[in-house]
Specification:
The protein is built from 14 helices and 25 strands. The protein has 462 residues and is an alpha+beta fold. It folds into 2 domains: 113 residues, Rossmann fold (3-Layer(aba) Sandwich); 215 residues, BirA Bifunctional Protein, domain 2. A hairpin with a 6-residue loop joins β6 and β7. The longest helix has 20 residues. It binds adenosine-5'-triphosphate. The site of adenosine-5'-triphosphate has 16 residues, from β12, β15, β18 and α10.
């Protein structure tokens, strides 16, 4: 038996809302504000320290956002480490001594050109201006100061005495941890090139203009791989990683129309790079970077070998050759990517003349995979509903919600992207079956409780 929980279920009329319909209804096309509002209202992302007025473009990830972010990172680790036998994972320190950043070049070069508008006193990153002569804030022409290089690293002190010996930096990228641990990992993991070291974690940049919500913040999370290869194999591994990374976004539901790979022009390349491409996403403000994939040659290992005096190379016993491996680096942002997944998943459609908001998140990314919903709060239903919740939550992140009318609870789960709802009703007490309702099709199927886990795993795909 299918329970007719949604109004006019059998004759649901479902239409996606085109931009023309949206504008007729006074609704904008999917834009950043819709996502930002939904995320705040439903507990994905809050402005940090909001009770004190917020703090300089920092954000906190709430009950749903922390799950979504964790799922983005887990999906990356699954594809980049778990499903391969040539990549290992590390978790290096965030605080580091100046020596690391001298060797990497960050102390000297990790800076952005900063200009001030003399008319409206706003500050801008020169390389991100549409027109380098026009202030985007007040429209003044030729009002900018000369560009000054502004180093993006956060400096702090390690220990109680503020002398130069205590200087420390918060890492502006996770990558250097892979280079400084190269020899230790090589020794302890029994890997040999081609092999990679991966890391997921926080990075900090004192951005001149943090903007577009969690797209550019001063504290953010990265997912980076340093893949070490024999020098001659650099170009083919670069091609391989470009395609592999593009596939990852596609597999997790970003449509082709919103995704592209853009090779850097020669004048964009760092001096050591022999090729870089960005994976770009169609954000509401246009194409912008999700991830950079760079051929870094032997630059990083050579720099650290020179500065530390340690040997950072590989001896190939098969060929009797010693060489410094070349590095291919796919470097992605976890928080920025989370924004892209949300934007791509956001959908509105008209169901029986009402607008239904759905986050069509891939099941692997959805914060909750399942919601268990007793039809009513009546005491007779609670024990069975809780039993079902325990059964399901042992395997999947599960929400349990017994307040409000069932139709509204379905809408809430649609809006937070829960792929499947499991409804326990009064018939369940007799027939020991529940109703499984699909987020995307809204179809409902009656399933015996003793077959429920198999049914859910078949539908979720894991
Ligand atoms: P941009 O040009 O946007 O400043 P970048 O080219 O300096 O970025 P990388 O150093 O290549 O970025 O960092 C790799 C990835 O880390 C970026 O593609 C992005 O996803 C993420 N990232 C970098 N800076 C930030 C930031 N301030 N906020 C959020 N994510 C970031």
């Amino acid at each position: 038996m299918n329970v007719d929980f949604e109004r006019c279920q059998s004759s649901n009329v479902v239409e996606p809302l085109g931009d023309d319909v949206r504008s007729l209804l006074g609704m904008p096309a999917t834009d950043l504000d819709q996502i930002v509002n939904l995320c705040k209202r439903r507990g994905f992302v809050y402005p940090s320290a909001e009770i004190y007025g917020g703090f300089r473009s920092t954000y906190d990830y709430g009950p749903l956002g922390s799950l979504l972010l964790r799922n983005v990172k887990d999906a990356w680790v699954r594809a980049m480490v778990q499903q391969r036998d040539d990549v290992v994972l590390i978790d290096a320190a965030i605080l580091g001594p100046p020596e690391v950043w001298q060797a990497s070049g960050h102390l000297a070069n990790f800076s952005d050109p900063l200009v001030d508008c003399t008319e409206c006193k706003t500050r801008h990153r020169q390389d991100k201006l549409d027109d380098p002569n026009t202030c985007p804030n007040c429209g003044a022409i030729g009002s900018f100061t000369e560009a000054r290089q502004f180093n993006l690293m956060f400096k702090t002190q390690a220990g109680p005495v503020a002398d130069a010996g205590a200087d420390a930096y918060l890492r502006p990228e996770t990558a250097q941890g892979m280079f400084t641990n190269f020899a230790s990992v090589l020794q302890t993991s029994r890997k040999r090139p081609p092999f990679g070291i991966a890391q997921v974690g926080k990075s900090f940049r004192n951005e001149i203009t943090p903007q577009n919500w969690i797209f550019r913040t001063r504290e953010f999370e990265q997912m980076e791989l340093e893949f070490f290869v024999p020098p001659a194999d650099g170009p083919s591994w670069y091609e391989y990683w470009c395609q592999h990374r593009l596939e990852w976004y596609r597999d997790l539901g970003i449509p082709d129309s919103m995704l592209r790979l853009r090779a850097h022009d020669d004048d964009e390349l760092s001096h050591y790079s022999t090729g870089t491409a960005d994976v770009e996403f169609m954000f509401p403000w246009g194409w912008d970077e999700l991830e950079g994939i760079a051929q870094r040659t032997d630059y990083d290992l050579t720099q650290h070998a020179q500065h530390s005096g340690e040997r950072l190379d590989y001896f190939d016993q098969a060929t009797n050759e010693r060489y410094v491996p070349y590095v291919i680096e796919p470097a992605a942002g976890a928080t920025r990517t989370m924004a892209a997944f949300l934007l791509a998943a956001y959908d509105e459609e008209k169901v029986n003349d009402e607008v239904r908001t759905v986050l069509r998140l891939h099941p692997r990314l959805a914060p909750y995979k399942i919601a268990v919903l007793p039809l009513s709060k009546k005491e007779t239903l609670t024990p069975l509903a809780q039993e079902v919740r325990r059964l399901v939550s042992d395997r999947y992140m599960t929400d349990y919600d017994e307040t409000q009318a069932i139709g509204r609870r379905y809408r809430r789960q649609d809006e937070i992207g829960t792929p499947l709802c499991v409804t326990v009703d009064f018939d369940s007490l007799d027939d020991k079956a529940v109703t499984v309702r699909d987020r995307d099709s809204m179809e409902q199927t009656r399933v015996p409780i003793d077959q429920l886990l198999g049914e859910l795993s078949g539908r979720l795909g894991f």
